[in-house]
Design goal:
Largest sheet: 7 strands, antiparallel
Order of helices and strands: HHEEEEEEEHEEEEEEEHEEEEE
Strand order of the largest sheet: 13-14-19-18-17-16-15
Strand content: 25-35%
Helix content: 10-25%
Number of domains: 2
Protein name: Fibronectin type-III domain-containing protein
Number of strands: 19
Organism: Cellulomonas phragmiteti
Radius of gyration: 22 Å
Shape: globular
Number of helices: 4
Mean pLDDT: 78
Length: about 375
C-alpha cells in the first residue's frame, strides 16, 4: 500500500517537539501533558503484560490495549434497584423534569490537538481512544435547580441504556460569565463576545485548564479540559473495546442525580498485537505502537516507518512507549526538556526522545486513504 510517508516526513520536520505531545516546557499545559503521559505509560505497560499472557494461553478474541479484556460479552442487564445515575442503572431513569434542565456541551481533542465542542446530537462523537482515557473539553451553561444544589458533574458511560462506567468532577454552584473567564483565566486572548453567557466551572486543578474552542457550527465557547477514564464502574477494570454512549448528569448534596445531557458516542479501540515485519537492520530495541505496518525504509542515516493504528491519542501513546527505554541525563540542553515522574531525567529534544543510538520522534498522521497512523523518524545519535 502506498502511503504519504514522504509528506509526513516533511510535516514531522516542521512540527518538531509540538507534535510529539510534550509541548513547550514554558507553557502551563506541558506539566499536565507529562503527568497524563506517565499515567498512560503505566497503563500501557500493564496492558502489554496482560496481552502477552493472553496470547500465551491461546485465548480467543481481541485484547484491549488498556487491560486484559478478551472477547466482549453482551451488555449486562440493568439493575432495577440501582439509583438513577449509579452503576448499572438505566439512563431512562434520570430525572428530566422542568427543574432538571442541564446544559452541557462536550467535545474531543483530535490527534492534532485541536478541540471541537458540541451539544449532544446525531453525528456528535468524542473520538476513538487507545490509552484508557479520553481527552475531552466541557462547557456547562446550566445546572438543575431541583434538589439540594449540584455539587458534582457525573459522566456516564453506557451501552444499550445501561450505565457501565462513571466519572465525577466537582462543580461550582455559582457560575462565572464568559467575560469573566476571558479576563481572569484566559488573559491576553481578548474579548470575542459581548454576551454574558453563564459558565459553571469544574474544580480547577493543575491538571485542568481553560481554553477557547469552536463548535462544529463555528461558534466559540470557553471550556475546560476533562480526562474521562474509560473504566468499568463494577471494578472489573478497563471497559472492553466497543462504542459507548456518554451522558452527563449532576449529583446534588445528598447524592441524588439531577438532569441529563447526551448522548455522545465514544469508541474504546481494540489492540492489534500483530508483530511488525520490519526490514533487516531496523532497530529492534525501539518500541513501536501496535497496528499495521505500512512502510519502513532507510531515511538518510536513520529510518522512517508508518504504522496504521486508531485513536485520537495515538501520537501520545506512541511517544509514551519510548520513555521507559530512553536515556536519562541531569544535563538538559537549552532546546530540550525533561519528563516528570516516573521518568525523571528523560531528555526530549527537537529530534525526539533520546534512546541508545537513536533520537526517535513519533507523530500522529494519516495515510492517503485517510487511515489514522503514526509516523516514526529515527535519527542516528553519536
Amino acid at each position: 500500500m502506498s502511503t504519504r510517508l514522504d509528506l509526513a516526513l516533511q510535516e514531522v520536520a516542521e512540527a518538531a517537539g509540538a507534535s510529539s505531545g510534550f509541548g513547550d516546557p514554558e507553557t502551563p499545559g506541558t506539566a499536565t501533558t507529562v503527568h497524563r503521559l506517565a499515567a498512560r505509560v503505566r497503563r500501557r505497560r500493564a496492558a502489554r503484560g496482560a496481552a502477552t499472557t493472553a496470547v500465551a494461553a491461546s485465548a480467543a478474541g481481541a485484547v484491549a490495549l488498556v487491560g486484559p479484556q478478551l472477547t466482549r460479552e453482551a451488555t449486562p442487564a440493568g439493575d432495577p434497584d440501582a439509583d438513577p445515575g449509579e452503576c448499572r442503572s438505566a439512563v431512562a431513569d434520570l430525572p428530566s423534569g422542568p427543574r432538571d434542565v442541564l446544559g452541557v456541551e462536550l467535545g474531543q481533542r483530535d490527534a492534532d490537538d485541536v478541540a471541537v465542542i458540541d451539544p449532544a446530537g446525531a453525528g456528535q462523537d468524542l473520538g476513538t481512544w487507545l490509552s484508557g482515557s479520553a481527552d475531552l473539553v466541557v462547557n456547562v451553561s446550566q445546572i438543575p435547580d431541583a434538589g439540594v444544589g449540584a455539587t458534582r458533574l457525573r459522566f456516564l458511560l453506557t451501552q444499550d441504556g445501561v450505565v457501565l462506567g462513571t466519572a465525577h468532577e466537582p462543580i461550582a454552584v455559582t457560575p462565572l460569565t464568559t467575560d469573566e473567564v476571558l479576563s481572569t483565566r484566559l488573559e491576553g486572548i481578548g474579548a470575542w463576545t459581548t454576551d454574558h453567557l453563564p459558565v459553571y466551572p469544574l474544580e480547577e486543578t493543575d491538571r485542568r485548564w481553560w481554553e477557547v474552542v469552536e463548535t462544529s457550527g463555528g461558534a466559540l465557547r470557553v471550556a475546560q479540559t476533562v480526562e474521562l477514564g474509560l473504566t468499568a464502574c463494577d471494578g472489573s477494570g478497563a471497559l472492553p473495546p466497543g462504542t459507548y454512549q456518554v451522558y452527563a448528569t449532576t449529583v446534588d448534596a445528598v447524592g441524588t442525580a439531577r438532569g441529563a445531557a447526551g448522548p455522545w458516542d465514544v469508541e474504546v479501540a481494540a489492540d492489534d498485537a500483530t508483530p511488525h515485519a520490519l526490514p533487516d537492520g531496523f532497530p529492534q530495541d525501539v518500541p513501536l505502537i501496535d497496528g499495521r505496518l505500512v512502510a519502513a525504509h532507510r531515511h538518510g542515516d536513520g529510518w522512517a516507518a508508518e504504522i496504521v493504528t486508531p485513536g485520537n491519542d495515538r501520537g501520545t501513546v506512541a511517544v509514551s512507549l519510548l520513555a521507559p527505554v530512553a536515556l536519562r541525563s541531569d544535563h538538559v540542553p537549552a532546546d530540550a526538556m525533561v519528563l516528570g515522574p516516573p521518568y525523571q531525567d528523560v531528555v526530549v529534544t527537537r529530534a525526539g526522545v533520546e534512546l541508545p543510538g537513536w533520537a526517535v520522534r513519533a507523530v500522529a498522521s494519516r495515510t492517503p486513504a485517510g487511515e489514522p497512523s503514526v509516523v516514526y523518524i529515527l535519527t542516528a545519535r553519536p
